[in-house]
Amino acid sequence: MRKKYINKNNIHQEKNKKIDNINKIIKKNIINLIPYKSARLLYKDNDNKNLIALNANESSIISYFSLNKKIFNKYPEPQPKKLIVLYSKYVNLNVKNILVTRGADEGIDLVMRTFCNQKNDKILFCPPTYDMYRVTAQILDIKYITINSNNINWELNLNKIKENLNNVKIIYICNPNNPTGNYINKNIIIELLELTKNTTMIVIDEAYIEFCIDQTFTYLINKYHNLIILRTLSKAFALAGIRCGFLLTNEYIINTLLKVIAPYPISEPSTDIAIQALNLKNLIIMKNNVQTIINNKKWLVKNLYNCRCVKYIFNSSTNFILVKFYNSDYIFKKLNKKKIIIRNQNNQKNLNNCLRITIGTIFECKKLFFELQQLS
């Protein structure tokens, strides 16, 4: 039988033609979008045995929960009442000030979709910071302004922000900040709230706030009607897998956001586990775990200064540290080969030669220190 000849060039041209036709339908901003790179996507090795993953700011301490509910044929509560009551007690706010979201990321998106139109409105954020503010704006085709933080102490450049508030509907502030680890001066944020109270929403992303709880702005929710706070159970609560977050603000904004949010944002299993995490016993465990991570961080920072490859370690009020190396690419690749995965920040504004390291267990911290000593 004669073999059928396949013209690979024709197949390639046909494929490109199909792509071109699809691209005529896809929004241009999506075609050109540089997506957010999640920690799971950045590590390509499928063999996870003995892997030390210190690149996602997840908790190093495992939380064990079992589902109480076993039947899931009905839709969940749109906003689970028991969960909201428990979280209201935890943050000392009225239940009317709380919205449950699929992690803090949904809160970032929800606020932007509610307050911004594509034609004139802008958002503002201050790099280096969490990249989902940019990504969400680009997905929604909303303009954004970046005002670089002071690269000495990563404080907000308030004067520069004041000069760029025209048509800015939302300012996103990660506090404490990711990836730098610092918290923002309270007086600067309060001045910003005062300055923008009739024009701009100030969204404070408190994903890491349990590691410096005295820096929270929840006590100002009822004073400033332009204040929104984002929270999550992913970090200190060690529940990144259930994707449960909260949006805290005044009652009127909550009711407005309820018009926009998906009908059933959080699943029954996620609600079940989140409720368990917020009982008194598990709150005590969470706080003890936070202290353990802080202690591990102190140990790691102290010892990293004995590594000759380390140039500087930035102060951190989170469950991670930002470290400046003399040659970060070399360190990153060598650790990768040893199955120690950290986050490369070399492409971020003003973070040349910087790597972000999640604080692991004391064993993981010692292993990291040992490998870095070998590279010194």
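Next protein, fold it too.
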Amino acid sequence: MKKFMLGVCMIVLVLITAACGGNKEGGDSAGGATLKAIKSKGVIQIAMEGAYPPYNFINESNQLEGFDVDIAQEIAKRLDVKAELLPIPWDSMIPALTGKKFDIIVSDMAITEERKKKVDFSNPYFTTGNQLFVPQDSAIKVPEDMKGKKIGVTISTTAAEMVTEHEADVKLYKNDFLAFEDLINGRLDGVSTDQGVGAKIILERNYTLLAVDGLLNTEEAGITIRKEDTDLREEINKIIADMQNDGTYEEISKKWFGKDIR
């Protein structure tokens, strides 16, 4: 009986050991599955909003263009694959990423603790902040003046969080273009968005608006990646570091902003 029990215990031990070993191997495989699939297909699918100039926007040829586009193309080049760029509405990006509709997001997405509950991020690839834009004759002179005022923001952005903290009457929009149109037409008192985005929209559309002095916050943006794609994250971190070290990042940054924005 003891010999029989000993034999059973040895079999159970072997099975447990094999199972543990299999789980470890499966975990490693899961962490690298997306990167392997990208390499195998020769394509990386990259989502961006396409309504956030100069970071990413649809040009006159109906093609995605901008800082994020050039960064995305360079990432694909260094992975030795082609980039398939997908314009995706901002508020559905993270659900679509976790639902495996594409591989990564490169769209000026700020790294926040709330977002990190659902997704992972690369190391930051630039630093920016939100700013308030108002008509030239506005009574809003400093960010604190927006209290009780109608301020437009894009849904699910850090700008929305900032104006809420300033007790503004927050109006949500699908994108910044729609918010700025309502501002020009007198339906808003101001719009808050990324400082570079706001400046670009005002310049391109010749709006008579002013940027209120002082950023509402500063934030770091990262490439957005699924939590389980650890190998892909590590590879992208390496690529970002290499781009910043060899001058490629600075070249792309100066093309769109006239300066290095890292």
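About the second fold: The radius of gyration is 23 Å.
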